[in-house]
Amino acid sequence: MAAILIVEDEIPIHELIRRSLEAVGHTCVSVFDGKAAIRELSQHEVDLVLLDIMLPEVDGYEVFQQIKGTPTIFLTARSSLSDKVKGLTLGADDYLVKPFEMLELLARVDAVLRRTKKESREFELDGVKIDFESRQVFLHAAPVECTPKEFDLLEVLVKNRNIALSRDKLLELAWGYDYVGDTRTVDVHIQKLRKKLEMEGVIKTVYKMGYRLEV
């Protein structure tokens, strides 16, 4: 997983971001103003910076000018097109407008880390090995046949591990926004994954909500 610097001065948002990233396995470093961010990055390397624009001391744009070369996602309440264009023109890897869902942030982080080669394309847990590049799954080194949707669902659970996901959210992420169907589809696929991969104790049912891959 990755080392991520969070530069955000709103403490509740900062803590929510930190907890969400650490839940899926990332290591986080926290700073709350622009000067502290520049100082931290002059002393330590990180894989990704989550950078608010409106910061005390030095704003996010100026911070970014001084740390170019480190993958960066701007986090900001500024939603105008001109602000977004400015951020991307400066060379940021992505630009996310507040308020945002944590699952969207995790997806954006995963996408940037994949592009910058900082994210592992394999996952292993309790004898299960998943190769996301080849879309292959192994149990105790033996290949396991998974349907495309079973693999998509498994990938969503792994990428958002330790986070409770509703059945509707799993449908949205694994089947797509335009899927028209019953949430029982999720239950059927979960049961198949549990059986095929011996994950009865790992893919947890979240009462009256959905499921969570517990690591």
Major β-sheet strand ordering: 2-1-3-4-5
Q: How widely separated are the two ends? A: 14 Å
- Principal-axis shape equals elongated
CATH class membership of the largest domain: Alpha Beta
Find the CATH topology of the largest domain. Answer: Rossmann fold
Q: What do the pLDDT scores average to? A: 91
Name given to the CATH architecture of the largest domain: 3-Layer(aba) Sandwich
Largest sheet: 5 strands, parallel
Order of helices and strands: EHEHEHEHEHEEEEHEHHEE
Q: Which oligomeric state applies?
A: single chain
What does the model show?
This protein has 215 residues and is α/β, with parallel strands linked by helices. The protein has 2 domains: 3-115, Response regulator (Rossmann fold, 3-Layer(aba) Sandwich); 122-213, Winged helix-like DNA-binding domain superfamily/Winged helix DNA-binding domain (Arc Repressor Mutant, subunit A), CATH 1.10.10. Helices cover 41% and strands 23% of the residues. The strands form 3 sheets. Strands 2-1-3-4-5 form a 5-stranded parallel sheet, sandwiched between helices. It has a 4-stranded antiparallel sheet with strand order 6-7-8-9, with no helix packed on it. Strands 10-12-11 form a 3-stranded antiparallel sheet. Strand 4, helix 4 and strand 5 form a beta-alpha-beta unit. The two termini are 14 Å apart. The model has no long low-confidence stretch (mean pLDDT 91).
